[in-house]
Amino acid sequence: xxxxxxxVTHAYAGSEESAAVQVLDDVSLEIxxxxxxxxxxxxxxxxxxxxxxxxxxxxxxxxxxFLETIDTSVLDEWHLTMLRRMTIGYIFQFFNLIPTLNVFxxxxxxxxxxxxxxxxxxxxxxxxxxxxxxxxRATHFPSELSGGEMQRVAIARxxxxxxxxxxxxxxxxxxxxxxxxxxxxxxxxxxxxRHPTIVMATHSEHAAAYGDYVIEVADGKVSRGSGVGSRGxxxxxxxxxxxxxxxPPTPPSK
Amino acid sequence: xxxxxxxxxxxxxxxxRTTLTILGIAVGVAVVVAIALSNQSAxxxxxDSVDAVAGRANYQIVSDVGLSEDVLLALQPFWGRxxxxxxxxxxxxxxxxxxxxxxxxxxxxxxxxxxxxxVDLLSDLHFREYRYASVVTSSHESAATYLSLxxxxxxxxxxxxxxxxxLKLGSPLMLDIKGIRRxxxxxxxxxxxxxxxxxxxxxxxxxxxxxxxxxxxxxRLSRIDLIVPDDSLIPAIERILPASAxxxxxxxxxxxxxxxxxxxxxxxxxxxxxALLVGMFLVYNTVLISILRRRRDVGVLKxxxxxxxxxxxxxxxxxxxxxxxxSVVGVALGRGLAWLILRMIGRTIxxxxxxxxPEAIVLTPGIIAAGLAVGTILSLLSAIQPSIEAAQVRxxxxxxxxxxxxxxxxxxxxxxxxxxxxxxxxxxxxxxVICFIIAVLLSRLPAWNxxxxxxxxxxxxVVTGFSALAPMIxxxxxxxxxxxYRAAFGIVGELASASIPASLRRTSIAAAAxxxxxxxxxxxxxxxxxxxxxxxxxxxxxxxSDLWLRPSKGLSNADAAAFPNAISADLAKVPFIAAFDRxxxxxxxxxxxTITVASGDLDVAARFGDLPMITPRSFxxxxxxxxxxxGVVVSESFALKYEKGVGDDVTLTTILGRHSFPITxxxxxxxSDRGVVVMNRALYTxxxxxxxxxxxxxxxxxxxxxxxxxxxxxxxxxxxxxxxxVTNGEIRGEVMKIFDQTFLITYxxxxxxxxxxxxGVINTLAALILERTRELAxxxxxxxxxxxxxxxxxxxxxxxxxxxxVTGLAMGYVLSWILIYVINKQSFGWTxxxxxxxxxxxxxxxxxxVASLVAGLVPSRLARRIDLAMAxxxx
Lengths: 254, 875
Prior knowledge:
- The structure holds two protein chains of two kinds.
- Chain A has seven helices and ten strands.
- Chain A is of the alpha/beta class.
- Chain A starts with a strand and ends in a 30-residue tail after the last strand.
- In chain B, the strands form two sheets. In chain B, strands 1, 2, 3, 4, 5, 6, 7, 8, 9 and 10 form a ten-stranded mixed beta sheet that branches. In chain B, strands 11, 12, 13, 14, 15, 16, 17, 18, 19 and 20 form a ten-stranded mixed beta sheet that branches.
- In chain B, strand 12 (577-590) and strand 13 (593-600) form a beta hairpin.
- The two termini of chain B are 23 Å apart.
- Chains A and B meet through helix 1, helix 2 and helix 3 of A and helix 1, helix 8 and helix 11 of B.
């Protein structure tokens, strides 16, 4: 899925006591479909906000943000919801599994939202769990898992509905190095086999190496980083005014 | 899946929260169901009795002063037009039965209220069905078998009544009807069918001629039952009736009783409403807490593509599930409670309103549906606001905890609000002030149809006003307590007082619910305490005579039992009596309602007695005027209900037809809320042809010893008139006993509200602990002991308890003002002087405060179970 930001500004509203906080300032950016982009920046630089905007969980205060040809800045809540439901997969720093659902149910959740026929759900969840090596944990609840296992469940959940865009916010931020390595390997593996667009926020140089290229975020501005990706290709045209893409949006079930 | 994630699994995984919430709703619903059931049962018992006694009659000719048999002659021409009629004697009286099934020799017989039904046993079969279980027969059965029933001393009683009291065919049965005592013989037993089922079987049936002869009623009838085939005949029948009689459907009596009980029922339902309101707070709190606790999950679900509508639906369903399950449990619980209530209010209703024993409780589909609907709809309503809030949770705040924790939200965010230092909330103060102003305006409105509707709504507004202020009060109280708590309990005390405002939304709702329950409790304690004190002063003033002579022991039988007029001559001969006042009271129809027409020797009362007057000041002037002008004095409730005062006339139906009486005084009376009209005995006996008396008030000559006078009176009047002499102290004691019994149910209902509120506090604190697992674990890791954590939690609940107690006390005073001066005055027509029962209020506040501490103890046990490693690891 191609991502295009045009002069995006984002601010959090202030209150009686405090002024509004501007987090992103006139950001233009393009990430091509099938890229593995890494957002890097210090805490408070605005990378999580950028991720929220790309992930259609928030709308820019000004400017436009296109996912393929869809301008998310003009969508209402319902259409944003549908966009998230059908085309985006999320991996969070704190895993964010639903504590009341077991592993199988957590992974199956996006399918149930998409109203996938019951008969289809079981084999797809089983396959996803096999992909992340958790077949034997299907009936366990999140509280019974280790951190690495929880993140693997989150990855299975993020890919189960075959999204064309996967967003990962500090996916290893809460894990030890061994588990972090495994998770990054899994994400890279998914990228290689399924070819979704992946945007990963991190402040670890090591984690950034798993992507194709880096977009630096600092003080609400983005700038082109180095092409450190393991694929070695630097296809990014960060900071460059985007050009229209003639390709139609990817169907969610692809 | 959304349901499973947000609602169903949490319901199962948090059994304590689920149980407490369901219990809270169940208790609220149970109270409503129980009151509906017991009301229905008490009323239906009376209706069934009326119906059973009325039989197939579709009309009745009735009169408050009795009917002459001549009416039957006047009815003869209608026989040819298909009208059937049956003369009836229907009187309340007392039956003396052996005490217990095997009475000890010399034991006093038990006195039971009984209904004497005198009918023409031959022709009455058109109207009522009698199934004889057995009849006294002569040695050989013949056509004359039933003739024994027509003897002057024969009665037929239900077989069940006979069995219960050890009576058999041929047993003597002493009846006291209108002061005339006759020993009758049981000559027939009836199966439980038709009239034999009325008044729980406490009915004696005699041939009408025998009844008239035995009880001095020759030529008189209580009423005539009619079967009128065609309503077009009604005007013609009405034309032949004497002025004192009226033609009405038997159902009219049911309507009168229903009207009489209405204010009483509304009052009970209003109290049940308090329990339900507290239950609503509980549901609101539970759903809100579950939303606050699952905000993160909600955010994740929304990020993953769950729509706002789905989230709203899920939480609304949670409210619905709690409501439905709670209501089902509540209906079952209510049935049990109804049984208990019936035992308590059954007495009140009997003592004050109608005489019939409430029967078995029947859970009708209507009541089940109403109970389920009330609980489910109210919890659904309570869940709406928090569910909307859940639906509005923005996904972006929850992608990571860092973002959520740092940014000030763009949309309203309750998780954030909880962490804010609570500043005085202007809109809430405005809401509160508006509510209080509306309450004041409402409390000035008059009653609607005899019900203090505006008063009840004013109560709601006061409650809403105080609830709006709850967050402010909780914050202020916590800030006030911080210093003393720190001084007394160190850092644990400071942490405790600081943590309450930190989770203001949750804690203020719990505090509001508890304040409401305490407020209502204080209000009712003040109201009942004031009422009790008022009645005590009134009784002291009114019951000023030395001795009372009564035909029965208990007060509740007083109306049914009576002395014959013959006792007057005998009393006049007693040397140590200075004067006596013969009191008589009876129910009479007045418009659509029933009032009490009473009589006494007003000249004696004016000289020796005392009566608290409203107008004129002097009771003796009012009474003397009444005697001189053939007038009446009326009770305050009568004056208020019918808007009459001194100088107006009261028109009553007497034996001579409609008669107007000038009102010469209005006096305070707390014995009945139906309104009392009192006239001089001479006037009463002339106009109502009734010379019996229920009580003789005796004034002794100076220097006469009361105890010896009492012994002498009982010795000489006991055997002859079955008289009991009681002292004024005993009468006062008995009145206060009845008073306390009457308000027992009130206290019971409030206790229920308190229980529900305490459940709410436990629920809130338990939720807070679960939510603060990490924080508590951190405190433990930093070196706080389990005991200290528990102490902190109990101190937290003490902050809530103290806040609620103080707020409840303030609310209680406001509410009691409305209860005393608006609701009570409008519903019952009683003026009550304000009085604070200090000890009662102090005791109840202490109980609720301790209960709130206990509420902190229960969830603090959860603190022990926190797994430090897990809690610190899990986000």
